[in-house]
Amino acid sequence: MRITRRSLTAWLGISALAACSGGVGSPPPASRATARPVANPAYDAWLVGFRQRAAAQGIASATLDRALRTAGFLPDVVERDRSQTEFTRTLEDYLAIAASDERIAKGRAQLARRQAVLRTIEARHGVPPEVVTAIWGLESMYGERRGDIPVVASTSTLAFDGRRGAFFEQQLIAALRILQRGDVTAERMTGSWAGAMGHTQFIPTSYLAYAVDFDGDGRADIWSDDPTDALASAAAYLGRSGWQAGRPWGMEVQLPPGFDTARAGRGNRREAGAWSAMGVRDMNGRPLPDHGPTAILVPAGPGGPAFAVFRNFDVILRYNNAQNYAIGVGHLSDRLLGRPPIRGRFPPDANGLTLDDRKELQRRLTAAGFDVGGADGVIGARTEAAIRSYQKRVGLPVTGQPSAELLQRLR
Ligand SMILES: [Ca+2]
What we know:
about 50% helix; mainly alpha; binds calcium ion; 20 helices; Peptidoglycan-bd-like
């Protein structure tokens, strides 16, 4: 069943981070507007046919009648779907968001607050508190951004729209099965524009496959304010995907001079000892620990940070099949435990600017009166708009693009 989640993220081309955390580049659309359906005769006609297909798959007409009260064509969901596909970020930008000061601080507070239940979850599913908390942090900012769009509406809109119609019709059928079981009402069954639900953003098929009732009230409730069932469900997902208890996801490493990066990549696994024999070391200069078959990743190319990844890295990818996401979860989980930031230096970006340069550019734009929405070093829509305003004011060609010359001019 995990294939459905993989399909979703492969289709998104990014992690759920961009899909649900907002503020990562494009201005977030007003969710209230998104949730307001508009009349669409073609959608209504599609629903007639869908009702027959749902009935053939065992969905009772009473279930359909109740659920479809929350349905409706959502043009903004289609808009999000179209704009999402080309959206990618470098690992450096991704980590600046995924392991931001805010996400680390909030995660540490949640980890401390929920230590007891997270330990109980670990005892049952083998996944440690910091990893479950990191997934929670990336998926919904610890429950702050669970999504308020009725899932029957979002999945039916995307099933009707048809670009990924078969996939979303499968999600819609799964959502109806959840409703038919009585786990939640259609009104409470809300999620992101793409139908990812609750604290840990399960799509409906993932819910059917992995959601657990951990607090024992008889329902796997991933929608409630209390995250217990959602956190246990994420742990169950990883546990059943092969998580190895007591093992790390991976670690930052140092490569020897002249390391052939053709040897990097998940397809090239070796024993830790073989990498150590080539001169790969941990960040303290020691040989690599043995956690089974190990791959070396060099996501920013030669000269950038390098990582050794173990079996549990692949398990995180089963949750969300994007390399940046898996490194983000692993690194955030390390930071939640108080471990250090990534020490390797990312090379300058395509504009010739380092992260420090980009932060300085944002600080100087802010000081000059152009709001960038926080100097996190990530050049998003607000920073680009600020650059355009600045360029217009000082009489430069209006490109919205950061550059070394622009930074120099601001100094
Ligand atoms: Ca429960």
